Amino acid sequence: MRGMPVLAMAESSVPIGIDRKRHHELRGRGHHVWERRVALIVVAAIPILGLIGVFGQRTTISEAGSPRASILVNAPTHVRGGIIFTSEMVITPHRTLKDARLLLGPGWFQGMTYNAVAPQPSTQTADGRWEVFDYGRLRAGTPFTVWISWQVNPTNLGSRAQDVALDDGPIRIATVRRDVTIFP
Predict the structure, then answer these.
(1) Which domains does the chain have, with CATH numbers?
(2) Which of 63, 115, 157, 162 could potentially form a cystine with 72 if both were Cys, beta carbons 3.0 to 4.6 Å apart?
(3) Burial of residue 5 (number of CB atoms within 10 Å: 0-12, 13-18, 19+)
(4) Residue, of 53 and 181, whose pLDDT is higher
(5) Residue 21 DSSP symbol
(6) What pTM value is reported for the model?
(7) Which has the closest alpha carbon to 178: 71, 18, 28?
(8) Chain centroid, CA 119 distance in Å
(9) What local confidence, expressed as pLDDT, does residue 35 receive?
């Protein structure tokens, strides 16, 4: 052993089953480097896409109307769990509404926390699948805006309908059909 060159000694001390060229010098494994790089790029792309807004919070305007009134809903259609957002609903009566009622479908409340509404309705009730906000008399030509604050529950995932309807007493005036998608 004393007379052996250092290199020969290092090569002779390689454990059984280990090929120095393959395991130390990585010969024949050049493609593995690219597989790791692609995997890291995919993992890094998800938060970057979230930062630039691909997964939600941008509002979308949905509207419906009739000769009596129109309703506009300005709220995000893609949100993430834990996010707080505000929806804006604008009722524009073309004729005076005697008993304006804003109705929200169950998709607004499933997996969401309802924080506040401004202005406060005179009454708030449930009618079948709808949550009803009663605002009473609204004059023709004067837009009436309702802001509702929400928080998406962190365990909430999937897609659901978030319909909004406008009634004048028992008469349905307009219905906005929209969907929301919740990301983790």
Answers:
(1) 6-51 (no CATH), 59-183 (2.60.40.3670)
(2) 63
(3) exposed
(4) 181
(5) I
(6) 0.72
(7) 71
(8) 25
(9) 85
